[in-house]
Amino acid sequence: MANEKQNIELLRLLHLASPSLPIGAYSYSQGLEAAIEIGDVIDEKTAHTWIAESLSTVADFEAPIFWRLLQALANRDEQTVTHWTERFIAARDTNEFRAETIQMGYSLNKLVLDLRIADESLQKIMANQAEIPLPTAFAYAAIALEISHENALLGLLFSIVENQVLVCVKSVPLGQISGQRLLLSLHPKIEAIAQRVQHIADDQLSNWAPGLSILSMQHETQYSRIYRS
What we know:
By secondary structure, the protein is mainly alpha-helical.
């Protein structure tokens, strides 16, 4: 029975973290397209550096907030869900970054409703949110699917990294083998962040990444672009 339960959880996690999830992740680069445009990312080595550094920002802010949202939703604590949802949205410091998380959060929230996998108490909490960013929606889906907090965190981090690698494969461009090697090389970074995130205090949270913010603003007026961020 224990193995059966673990297998079910694994399948649900793979489903939630899949790039085929219809929330539009493929249309965003999270600033990476701008970095490719100016020559900061030109090959596998520079792609690894970029993604690893981007993960450090995720580790200091987005992932810890996601961890708090998982716990709040599991406890049906609407006040705490609203608190961290509002703070995450407020910290999106460019129009593109804000639009990205709201669009994907909306799409994932709608998917959970359409699949009818969440109970009424969870649905009520989500219905009372003015706007829903991706971390809140992902946490909502994970709790609805009864995925453990630790595995849900790994799933979120992996999906972020995988999307960045796919952008590199398509736009640097990197070959498929190079992309898979890059993804594999980032596994230790994902695991280390997942462990650290669980112990970050509120006063240690920071989304300070001025270089990334500037690139995002530049991307809004970039002459030729494929991605929406």
